[in-house]
Amino acid sequence: MKTLVIGGTGTVGSEVVKGLLRHQQQVRVLTTSLSKAAALPQGVEAVIGDLNQPASLSTAFEGTDKVFMLNMHSLTEIEQAKNAIAAAKQAGIRKMVYQSIHRAHEFMEIPHVATKVLVEEAIQESGLTYTFVCPNNFYQNDFWFKDTILQHGIYPQPIGNIGLSRVDVRDIAAVAVKALISSELDGLSIPLAGPDVLNGPETAQMLSEMLQRPISYAGNDLVSWAAQSRQFLPDWLVDDWTIMYRLFQEKGLTASAEDLKTLSTVLGRAPRSYASFLEEHLSFFQPVPTLI
Length: 292
Ligand SMILES: NC(=O)c1ccc[n+]([C@@H]2O[C@H](COP(=O)([O-])OP(=O)(O)OC[C@H]3O[C@@H](n4cnc5c(N)ncnc54)[C@H](OP(=O)(O)O)[C@@H]3O)[C@@H](O)[C@H]2O)c1
Hints:
By secondary structure, the chain is of the alpha/beta class. It contains 12 helices and 9 strands.
């Protein structure tokens, strides 16, 4: 039987797709985009549909028995998730692996985190077999900051001075794939975090050492961060992320020893560190040579 991957053209979902293919699974990806459908790896079936349009979903779910779901930040995130849950029930799907957020129940003030908890509850109420994968902040977010890091020597993510146990998306995908292809993780929420607690200044320091150029932390001023971000992000998203970064600055977002023990047991190894992520992606963070 096939697995439907919702979000399979994005950061985490594309790694879930690769992982399923490595396990010889049949994979279908739901996408709103014809061009992204055409760029999927060989052997992956694409279906065009939109979680905002329930009528477009029955073809996507038909003939599949498991689904990986994440929902992009949007004002309709909860409706999109509920449309998918209803379509999954209608199609007789057996299992849903849903990407939530690390320690979501403790961060309900953040709108996109409260949404994740509501979706978790809707999945539990639906009667579907489920696993929740619950990631901390992704290392791969730093790809967005390449220009600021290289051109201005600044690490701009205002994560504060307490620290986060950030995670590599490939570890999220590894756990999601395990949940999809076996019953070992049924009914569980798996924390997804990295082994280090890194704050803003420490992150900038590691980048400086790895890239051998001075990089400093932009600081904790969320008023300036929001003003700059409003130039390229919608107001609702800037407001949401301002609450998130304020709470990161006030409380941090760290993994407990038990979280890391659970995760290492599921992965069969330690989670990837930020240093190993940077080492692997050093070439990405190098300036593009200019032709003279
Ligand atoms: N970034 C972090 O640090 C972090 C940490 C914890 C949790 N999260 C959560 O991770 C999720 C984002 O994951 P990501 O970064 O992998 O996402 P992403 O790279 O932004 O990709 C979003 C995916 O959602 C699909 N999508 C968007 N709108 C859709 C719609 N209306 N119908 C069907 N598919 C749709 C896109 O498909 P097409 O474009 O092909 O249609 C794409 O595959 C969010 O829920 C976020 O809260 C993020």
